[in-house]
């Protein structure tokens, strides 16, 4: 089977994550699923060995990808997404999600929608900050990361840190949905640039 | 006849029930399984609890030990949770290093403790910079029938309320800690985070408290952790089908009701234990 390797390096300010997609490729019999592709995500931190926090993030990214990738078109194969953190200056998970999505598109993996990651931070007065830096994240009362799909801006994935109220959640979600427009426009522009050359 | 259909087409089998707004075990879509909690059953632990959510059984044992506070926060102690999913609880797990589900559950519980501030880490400090309490919370699943996160959160909360810390005085002459086992005090529990889990079916239907079969057939899951003021400590949605804002609102209201149910149950249990 032909191995397809594609890379993408999106940067959110100073946060950058390198993503590589391998697949659809051979899968070990123990991990094989008879009617769809097996998705694997590997997140490597900048320093140190991957730990429990990385495993948790891998699960989040993998489940988000599984919701959009049309695995049924490639049964009994594996699609591996490898993410390497190059630099972390805040909003890391959102950057990883964007990197994974663009790498999957670049590799030509069939998907039903695109997805993007957006981070919101709520500070002590209740002010909303989109795409916070590491310093803002640390001082914030709550940090919410969402993954939204491109078709109807539905919430695919959410993970939060800190305490916040129901109303604030709806506010952040609405802000994230508005911000996702910019991210999808960026996807469109970079893909247009890439394919207009060749 | 029905058993044959269930094996061949499990999803269709479920859909037949969902169309009538109920589930194969007779519950409604928004109904939780019978919750039972038992406190202080493990004599060797400093705090313990056993929670049963239908068939899902999780036991939590807390041991308190001494430790040096972290250098960047000399007035804080530690709370170290660990979720153990062994082959004992389900055929899906193998013996050996913790699998992905156990690691994700441990991280989830650590996040809930951190976000909700259920125990203020400053309360765990004995002598700033020198000595602090370390609470090792071991959550062991005895039977995995779905909705492990809710059961673990509840077990942890009940066990934390049961923990008694002995009084410690630092002897100035020898600089050693003296523990008085006769005088014990309960931990100061500031909030009561309660988790409510939902499973998403076919991108539209939300059912509460999924069993293991339902979790396998679901297209997505969502866990909401709320405290008594209606503040959210955690909105854990690890991928799966998309949800609109309106659906999220429904989940929130269900989580609020569930919080009241769980709080009432816990208060009853603790009241019945007081005369000790």
TrEMBL record, chain A:
GO process annotations (BP): nuclear mRNA surveillance; poly(A)-dependent snoRNA 3'-end processing; rRNA catabolic process; rRNA processing; U4 snRNA 3'-end processing
Stretches assigned to the Exoribonuclease phosphorolytic domain: 11-110, 114-178
Entry annotated with the keyword rRNA processing: yes
Pfam families reported in the protein's UniProt record: RNase_PH, RNase_PH_C
GO molecular function, one term: DNA binding
Signal peptide interval: none
Subcellular location per the Swiss-Prot or TrEMBL entry: Cytoplasm; Nucleus, Nucleolus
Gene Ontology CC, one term: nucleolus
SUPFAM superfamilies linked to this entry: Ribonuclease PH domain 2-like, Ribosomal protein S5 domain 2-like
Keywords carried by this UniProt record: Cytoplasm, DNA-binding, Exosome, Nucleus, Phosphoprotein, rRNA processing
InterPro entries in alphabetical order: ExoRNase_PH_dom1, ExoRNase_PH_dom2, ExoRNase_PH_dom2_sf, PNPase/RNase_PH_dom_sf, Ribosomal_Su5_D2-typ_SF, RNase_PH
Assembly information from the UniProt record: Homodimer. Component of the RNA exosome core complex (Exo-9), composed of EXOSC1, EXOSC2, EXOSC3, EXOSC4, EXOSC5, EXOSC6, EXOSC7, EXOSC8 and EXOSC9; within the complex interacts with EXOSC3, EXOSC8, and EXOSC9. The catalytically inactive RNA exosome core complex (Exo-9) associates with the catalytic subunit EXOSC10/RRP6. Exo-9 may associate with DIS3 to form the nucleolar exosome complex, or DIS3L to form the cytoplasmic exosome complex.
Family: Belongs to the RNase PH family.
Protein name: Exosome complex component RRP46
Name of the encoding gene: EXOSC5
Automatic annotation (TrEMBL), chain B:
GO molecular function, one term: mRNA 3'-UTR AU-rich region binding
Keyword RNA-binding: yes
Signal peptide as annotated in the record: none
This protein's UniProt keywords: Acetylation, Cytoplasm, Exosome, Nucleus, RNA-binding, rRNA processing
GO CC field: cytoplasmic exosome (RNase complex); nuclear exosome (RNase complex); nucleolus
PANTHER family cross-referenced by the UniProt entry: EXOSOME COMPLEX COMPONENT RRP43, EXOSOME COMPLEX EXONUCLEASE RIBOSOMAL RNA PROCESSING PROTEIN
Family to which this protein belongs: Belongs to the RNase PH family.
Full protein name: Exosome complex component RRP43
Gene name, Swiss-Prot/TrEMBL: LOC111175253
